[in-house]
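Write out the 3D structure for:
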Amino acid sequence: MENMKKLPDAEFEIMQVVWANNPPITTSEIMKQLGHKKEWKIQSVVSFMQRLTERGFLRSEKNGKERAYFPIVNQEDYLKFETGNFLKQFHNNSFLNLVTAMYDDEVLTDEDIDGLMELLKKGRA
């Protein structure tokens, strides 16, 4: 999706619930899984779902009194998009800069470093 835009945190949380379920999903199901925990009102969830539909992340169908929502953008594609933006914005599009920052801050474990070394040895398959 070439015109993909970064999702606000609340909409991303909703998309995580959408992706974790078999489509379709309804606003009531979102409320059960996330809305009550977040103390959102049903109107807020409906607004989030409408925005996600307008932005091209979801499509909706009327199903009786309720709307059913289907993901258009899959989770893997969105995460690739977000990761690419993060790398560009904060690390000058350099994976090495990202790893160095994580290493310097002691975020990487020895296991992480071993895993990275294995990936580098294998190269692109």
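Residues 58 and 71 are 5 Å apart (CA to CA).
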